[in-house]
Amino acid sequence: MGDLRPDFVGIEALPGDLAEAVLGQSATPETVAAFRKELKLDLPPHVRYVAWLGAFVRGDFGNSLANRRPVADLISWRFANSLLLAGVTALIAVPVAVILGILAALYRNTVFDRLISMATLSTISFPEFFVAYILIALLSVRVALFPSIANINADMTLGQKLYAICLPCLTLAMVVTAHMMRQTRAAIINILASPFIEMANLKGLRRLRVVVLHAFPNALSPVINVIALNLAYLVVGVVIVEVVFVYPGLGQLLVDSVSKRDIPVVQASGLIFAATYVMLNLLADVLSIVSNPRLRNPR
Amino acid sequence: MSRLKSLEQVLSAGNLSRRAFIAYASAMGLAAAVSPMAFPSKANAEGPKRGGRLRLGLNGGATSDTLDPGIQLAMMPQVLVYGALANSLVEIDADGRPAPELAERWESTPDAKKWIFYLRKGVEFHNGKTMDADDVIDSINWHLKPGTKSAAKALVESIVSMKKEDKYTLAFELKSGNADFPFTLSDYHLVVGPQGTDLSTGVFTGGYKIKTFEPGVRAFAVRNPNYFKSDRAWFDEVEILGINDVNARTNALKTGQIDVMNRCDLKTVHLFKRMPGIQVMRQDGFKHFTFAMRTDMAPYDNNDVRLALKYAVDREQMVKTILRGYGRVGNDHPISVANRYHAGDLPQRQYDPDKARFHLKKAGLDGATFKLHAAEAAFKGAVDAGVLYREQAAKAGITIDVVREPNDGYWSNVWMKKPWCAVFWGGRPTEDMMFSTAYAKGAAWNDTFWDHPRFNELLVSARAELDEDKRRAMYGEMQRIVRDDGGVVVPMFSADLAAASDTIGHGKLAANWELDGFRAPERWWFKS
Question: Chain A contact for B507, CB < 8 A?
Answer without folding.
Answer: no
